[in-house]
Amino acid sequence: MDMQAEIEGRLKNLDYQFxxxxxxxxxxxxxxxxxxxxxxxxxxxxxxxxxxxxxxxxRMVKTLLNDLFSDGLIHALSIKAVTPDEYSN
Length: 89
Fold this sequence. Notes:
The chain is α+β, with helices and mostly antiparallel strands. Helices cover 35% and strands 26% of the residues. A three-stranded mixed beta sheet has the order 1-2-3. α2 links the parallel β2 and β3. The N and C termini lie far apart (35 Å). The mean pLDDT is 91.
């Protein structure tokens, strides 16, 4: 499975203006507790995050990817979710 394409496609529901994906799995080889699944980071810029707390932004993103976590395809995901105004500053 192309994890970048999978994540990017699912997050399109947030009507993002910018998306960046980084596979950080190679940095976590032998990481305690990792029984599979990759380590990834995403930056997503969307108006959908306006007036939403940082925690709820994270929840919005994770909800769209929930089964990838439960199926063991994602072990860890760093999420930076910002509005266009926050991104430009």
